[in-house]
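Sequence in, structure out.
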Amino acid sequence: MTSLREQLDDLRVRATTPDGAMTAELHGRSALRLTFARGWYDRSTDDEVTRKLTALAGRLWVARTREYWRILGAESGEYLTGEDRALGTRADAYREGRNALVAEGRSENGRVTIRVSGMRSWTVDVIPGTIHTCDEHEFAAMVEQAGAELIRDQYRKIARLKGEIYA
């Protein structure tokens, strides 16, 4: 039987923009993969890519959250769709702090930045001219770097928050 930790480490979800232009896959805790519909990237603009990536990030996180709760529910034998109501001032403080956290990830070359507040409000910034100076594989790698770094930043900040509240 696979442990809960192993199941979460092997978690795999996928999300696509409504028009099918982009697809993102999250595997495990922070491995990302971004792909584009054939020919779409070459016809797009920085603004168009930025807008779609911002929406796609939110969709991917929703898919990840649903799968997370599905795994936990299967493990517990209960149907779970989210956290229970916080019990106590520490739990309230933790949720309030977590919902206010801002995490950020940036590609190594700084061309792509992804930011999220409370894992709900997403922002993607692409330096102007990036789309026309990078092919789709180079660009996808930048997004994957930025996304993975954002997730690691979120985990670091969550750990710090837990230490501050529950220590």
